[in-house]
Structures are given as C-alpha cells and as structure tokens.
Automatic annotation (TrEMBL):
It is found in: Cytoplasm. Alpha-D-mannose 1-phosphate binds at residues 21, 125, 136, 143, 181, 183. Pfam families: PMM. CDD domains: HAD_PMM (cd02585). This is Phosphomannomutase. Keywords: Cytoplasm, Isomerase, Magnesium, Metal-binding. Its cofactor is Mg(2+). Its EC number is 5.4.2.8. Pathway: Nucleotide-sugar biosynthesis; GDP-alpha-D-mannose biosynthesis; alpha-D-mannose 1-phosphate from D-fructose 6-phosphate: step 2/2. It comes from Parnassius apollo. Its main location: cytoplasm. GO terms for biological process: GDP-mannose biosynthetic process; mannose metabolic process; protein N-linked glycosylation. It comes from the Eukaryota. GO terms for molecular function: metal ion binding; phosphomannomutase activity.
Amino acid sequence: MSSRKNILYLFDVDGTLTKPRQRISEELKNFLLNEVKTRVKVGLVSGSDYSKVVEQMDGEEITNQFDYVFCENGVVHYQQGQLKSTQSILNYIGEQTLQRVINFALGYMSKLELPAKRGNFVEFRSSMLNICPVGRSCSQSERDEFSKFDMQHRVRAKFVEALQNEFKHTKLMFALGGQISVDVFPIGWDKTYCLTHVVDENFAEIHFFGDKTTVGGNDYEIYNDDRTIGHKVTSPEDTKEQLKKWLNIE
C-alpha cells in the first residue's frame, strides 16, 4: 500500500456502491479493495448509522478495510472498527426543538395517502433524525413502489419544503435521504462534515462519488464543495466505470 497516491476517494453508499439498502456486489467489492485501494486511499460517507453501513458492505471485515468510514454524514467517525468521534443532535438542539420536529413530521405524514404505509416513521440516530413517509419497516417491493410514486408526486421534496418553512428559524437542515426518507440534521452536519476529519492528512485531491447531488439531495453539499472533486453517478455499475476511467484501470 506504500505506493498509493496521496489522494482520497470518498464514496456515498446507497445508489453509489449498492442498490438502495442492499448489499454491495462481490464484483464491485473486490474491485474497490483490489484495484482502487491499491492506488488511492478510500473512504465511505453515508447518512446511515454504522450497523446499516456494515450490513450493506457485507460485514465488518470488509467495512474495516476502508481507510475511513464516516457514518451519519461523518459526524460519527470510525477507523478500523474503532469509534473515533461522535456528536449528538439532542445535545445540540435540545429536547424541545427535537420534539417539535418529530410532532410536526408525524402530523404531516399522517395526512399523506401513499401506495403503502408501514412502521418506523421516525428513526433517532446519534447525529440526525431520519423521517420516512412509507415507514422504514416496509418491504423491498414496497420501498421500490414508494420510490416510483415519490419521483412522480415529489412527496419527499414537498415534505422538505414544509419542514424548511416550519423550522426556518432553527439551526436545522432537511435533505432527501437515500431512496425513501428525509434526513434532519444541524446546519453544517451535512456530508462536508467528514472533511474535517482528514484536514491533517493534506491530501493532494479528495474525490467524492455520489448520486443525490442536486439541490435537496444529501450529496449536494460535498459534491459542490471547493475541497472536493465531485463525480455524479447513476448506479454502482456507473461508479465502477467512472473509477476505471479516472484511475486508468483496464
């Protein structure tokens, strides 16, 4: 690994390395670890918590082979399976504001008519809230059905607009998370937060690969940040093709 360039390649997970909430393919996993990691340093940056990242990367052994694992936008930082740092949204905004957001979100979602509704509509994570109109306990087919419905009717985009309007005087941001949810986190705790952990490494370049790169998506800020070279991808297969091009891999 000593021949690796002083360059960092950061990857979103959902839609970039895996299909939403599914496991990485053997082919892409081997490609990243055997071809990409031998050339540059590699890191993951996801809005999900550590357990979900581990699940999608096919276990801790694989996850820990990445040089950096930034969960919950990098506010929760792991290296080689060890928690290096974390922050708390509860401590930052307080119980009163947190409950206001939850109550408003539940009230808003109660009025939505969707193809399906299941359970686990609000998930409390260390650094953020994840709000899901269809419910995170939905099946894969229900998830896909909601995703198609959402693209047509902009359910989540309208939800984000309502949240932004209701909480415009707070220190909170709202962004589309993954395929079916909305992420709520303090201003500045988007994926650019992970860059604070690598300042001392003085990388010559930091590349970021993600799919939700438009305004309102949770890759938007880091994709457009002056400190990164952003790459918009459309699928795990597209990610691999772009990597082959950038790293001159045959």
